Write the structure tokens for this entry.
Amino acid sequence: MKIALVDSGLGLLAAAAAIRRLRPDADLVVSCDPDGMPWGPRTPEDITGHALACARAAMAHRPEALVVACNTATVHALDRLRAEFEPGLPVVGTVPAIKPAAAAGGVVAIWATSRTTGSAYQRGLIAEFGGAAEVHEVACPGLAEAVERADGAAIAAAVASAAARTPAGTTDVVLGCTHYELIDDRIAAALAHPVRLHGSADAIAAQTLRRLGPGTRPGDGTLTVLHSGRPSALQAEALAYPQGALLTAPARV
């Protein structure tokens, strides 16, 4: 089994690690775009072009599924990616976990990038899946970029700012950017009281494996890294996060 994941940067680590935990035998191709990131400020057409370029680079490695491990790319490029690669290749997108977060009808805060916060896309998801919950949008300017750099001081400042703007009494926080799942422990610690955090990585992994079907093989899966189409290795910043360390751990003997 070989699975490709596409994102602008390190956000794809969360989904890749979730797949690795469920299927340690799966070969992973992670295709990110350090030359073109961040994707968020780009136009929808430009985001689509960059996502397609990363996906096409991964296709040379003949994956059996493609994961769009990025909220922004899913919003703007998923339809185009599916038009190009399906039905021959399953394409799985990323959707913020608003539905499970709102299921209990509590107070839900959606942490997301400044561009996504208030967008028609996110407002549509809230209208569709928010149910009886009280849902608030919390913009997190600079947080994804700080996570990408593994800049501890910048991460702490951005998390503290978002936590201060998270309404009192919040019961559930949706991690609306895949980068945020890499620091879920720091987000939980910054909030004034315990809350349930909801990421997308586990759901992405489960959906991808459902699309591919059952079956395992002996041994450990390989990791192939592409940077803007070039063969590379995971950047050093990835090792600052447990997910990156998992993906680069030596094969079991």
Remarks:
- The two ends are 20 Å apart (CA to CA).
- Residues 44-59 form the longest helix (16 residues).
